[in-house]
From TrEMBL:
Keyword Nucleotide-binding among UniProt keywords: yes
Domain of life (superkingdom): Bacteria
Record keywords: ATP-binding, Cell membrane, Membrane, Nucleotide-binding, Transport
Any Pfam family hit: ABC_tran
Domain ABC transporter as annotated: residue spans: 9-237
Classification via InterPro entries: AAA+_ATPase (IPR003593), ABC_transporter-like_ATP-bd (IPR003439), ABC_transporter-like_CS (IPR017871), ABC_transporter_ATP-bind (IPR050166), P-loop_NTPase (IPR027417)
GO biological process: quaternary ammonium group transport
Protein's name in the database: ATP-binding cassette domain-containing protein
SUPFAM superfamilies, sorted: P-loop containing nucleoside triphosphate hydrolases (SSF52540)
Alphabetized GO MF terms: ATP binding; ATP hydrolysis activity
Family listed: Belongs to the ABC transporter superfamily.
Length: 265
């Protein structure tokens, strides 16, 4: 068994559509140690979600393998929790019931579920919202519930697909800080998809920049700035410029590809 928590080995993913074959991922190799906070960064269409979905076990790679916690990934599993951008809460359930849901499915005793739900409501500052329904919550609050719901399952691995992409800047920073606090406290391994360079530098131990079609690893770097990071600091901005250049190259490839395809159609 590997010492790494997640091992992505020679992963390729090809989508076959009516018109063309899309190579979404090509020769992806990543070893992610336990407790590392990894951001997958790149413009739209570079395969970030495809890779995350493969790790989640929602859509297997066309070739290659992924293992988590020493076991081959063939389907979703309890050691991997997923948080989506669009919250994915049950609208007919209260906040507390949404958080409790996965534990009820697992058949945990009622008292134990109630204790976990209380603890998570406190951890995510949701105590005053426990009886509300998702429609009566702001986007930021809904995303707190979505995070609490995944934390309830106590998965050592959290997979997050642009979870803060729909939030305003202030709410987003608040939730980034909450996530960093929870990550430091619970020592989760996190793979976090974003196309925000600033978000990646603010959060990650390691940033994996992906190329646009085929999705490959363009740069794999450790971020060694001390936490909590200051986006106004010179080192932060130097890194932002460096990554900005890498992402822009891929954005331009995306743009050229779109123009080329428009010309063919
Ligand atoms: N089910 C599918 N069928 C065909 N092509 C697909 C499918 N899913 C994704 N793709 C293609 O694979 C490539 C990678 O898509 P993916 O959604 O993983 O990118 P992404 O980096 O997550 O982008 P975004 O930030 O827009 O979500 C894109 O070119 C996309 O059009």
């Amino acid at each position: 068994m590997s010492a790494s928590h997640i091992v992505i080995s020679q992963v390729n993913k090809v989508f076959q559509t009516a018109e063309r074959e899309v190579v979404a991922l090509k020769d992806i190799n990543l070893e992610i140690p336990q407790g590392q906070f990894v951001c997958l960064l790149g413009p739209s269409g570079c395969g970030k979600s495809t890779l995350l979905n493969a790790v989640a076990g929602f859509a297997p790679p066309s070739s290659g393998s992924i293992s988590a916690d020493g076991r081959l990934v063939t389907a979703p599993g309890p050691e991997r929790g997923m948080v989506f951008q669009e919250y994915a809460l049950f609208p007919w359930m209260t906040v507390a019931d949404n958080i409790a849901f996965g534990l009820q499915i697992k058949g945990q005793p009622k008292a134990q579920i109630a204790a976990t739900v209380d603890q998570l409501l406190t951890m995510l500052s949701l105590q005053d919202f426990r009886s509300r329904y998702p429609k009566d919550l702001s986007g930021g609050m809904r995303q707190r519930v979505a995070i609490a719901r995944v934390l309830a399952l106590d998965s050592p691995i959290m997979l997050m697909d642009e979870p803060f992409g729909a939030l305003d800047a202030l709410t987003r920073r608040n939730l980034q800080d909450e996530l960093l606090r929870i990550w430091a406290e619970l020592k989760k391994t996190i793979i976090f998809v974003t196309h925000s360079i600033e978000e990646a530098i603010y959060l990650a131990d390691r940033i994996v920049v992906m190329t646009y079609r085929p999705g490959t690893v363009k740069r794999d770097m450790l971020v060694e700035l001390p936490r909590l990071r200051d986006p106004a600091a010179a080192e932060f901005n130097a890194l932002k410029r460096e990554l900005g250049q890498l992402v822009m190259e891929e954005q331009q490839r995306h743009h050229h590809d779109e123009l080329r395809m428009a010309a063919v159609d």
